[in-house]
Amino acid sequence: MNTIIRSLNNRSRNRSAGTSEEAYRRPNYECREQADALTLVVYVPGVESPDVEITARGADLTITARKHRFVRVNFTALHLEAAQRDYRLTLRLGRNFDYENLHAEIHEGVLTILLPKRNVGTRLERFRHAA
Question: Highest mean pLDDT: which of 8-12, 13-17, 106-110, 115-119?
Answer without folding.
Answer: 106-110
